[in-house]
Amino acid sequence: MDFVNAxxxxxxxxxxxxxxxxxxxALGAIGVTLIYGILRFANFAYGDLMAFGTIxxxxxxxxxxxIGINLGVLPTALLAIPFAxxxxxxxxxxIDKFVFSYYRIKKxxxxxxxxxxxxxxxxINAVVRIxxxxxxxIFF
Length: 140
Hints:
- The chain starts with a helix and ends in an 8-residue tail after the last helix.
- It is an all-alpha fold and 140 residues long.
- It has 4 helices and no strands.
- The protein is globular.
């Protein structure tokens, strides 16, 4: 019985968190690689764009929980993720239209686009901190 308990503990505290975190890193790496492969510049704001989407997933989860919408035994965040993804996509398209397209039209070198993406990264980071705050959040 101790062996089964040890396997459950290993699964809950090592395997599942490792797979979850590794999947998040892989998703970010695939996105950065696709952006670089298609647009030919390193978009350093991609991680903060992921954080922006995560913030809206949290906000939608809180909203759905506050009005009593849930998925039973499944996490409410599963219901909120599509809405957050749509907002992150719209936000990303707006940033591309109003920031990056100007530099593409001017045929700026890739290093200029990379520096602009660092500026966009700082702006998105500030927006995220304004919306959710700089403190740690604990979810149960």
